Amino acid sequence: MRFTVPFALSLVAALAAFATGCRSHSSAPVNGLTPVRLQLDWYPQPEHGGFYTALLKGYYKAEGLDVTLLPLPQYGSVAQLIATGKAEVGLGSSDQILEWDSNGLPLVAVAATMQHDPQAIMVHKDSPIRDFKDLEGRTIAAQTGATWLKYVLLRYNLHQVQQVPSTLSIANFLADPGYVQQVFVTSEPFYAQRAGVQVRTLLISSSGYDPYRVQFTTRDFAAEHADAVTKFVLASIRGWEEYLRDPAATNAYLLKLNPALDPAQEAYTAQALHDGAFITDANAAHPQTGTMNGARWQSEYEQLKSLGVLKGSVDPSTAYSLAFAR
User: Fold this and answer.
1) What is the Cα 308 distance to its own chain's centre?
2) pTM for the whole structure
3) Which of 78, 166, 187, 278 supports an S-S bond with 114, CB 3.0-4.6 Å?
4) Same domain for 59 and 140?
5) Residue 40 to residues 2, 66, 250, 280, 311: CA-CA distances in angstroms?
6) Do strands 107-114 and 213-218 pair parallel, antiparallel, or not at all (unpaired)?
């Protein structure tokens, strides 16, 4: 769930391939099962736990699917890989889908992986920063070109916030009590606390910028293989519900796939996903894994439009479908 590759470069490649019809979707049944490749947005990790649970428990197979989970290649772009047919389904966020669509990629979100994004800013426990307005006059380590930061600057009328590129390390944070860093609440706080540093986090979603994390495909694939997409979404929902109940077996499997993981960190992440209700949205009137709301997509479209990040015209109603998660 990290995004470190400049999107413009991969977008150019994706559009070029799309224009020349470079497609390699593999949807012919094999041994009675329809193959579906899920392109992850990072290396295997607990934030992908529901998909791996569905694989391990045979939920995809029970739906007639042969699902392969693909780690993100170094310097890879999920949007490019989906648009050029290297995988059928990818992981991203709703704001990305709207931006990609506005740049000419006909992609559609088919289900919500997370109702709310676990990205946040992390500060030391004694930091005077208690709200986003307190960022005025501060420096923040954040993803280059982060749309959420543009939103925060505009909403809170901030004029003196400096940004430095974020890294995959918390070394600078540990060394500087005044450091402010963009993080995932499911990950970096664990390592800071293990190093003996007490922290606080402020979820970006609490600012009013609140994208879904989604599963998406191309509009053509969603239309031509609606049955396979529906089965994939339903099996994934079942996997996530099971992972939240008992992540132990899946975490053990993830550790084999990605030895860089730490068992204690895996347990921390799984608990954070559960306690934060990122998957199920405990604050909703009727919490349900996977579902999305059209009004929320429209609101997000209006936010992005006001920020000037949508480069071309896009109809927000074509960027998502509510037909698959039910």
Assistant:
1) 22
2) 0.91
3) 278
4) no
5) 10, 16, 16, 20, 26
6) antiparallel
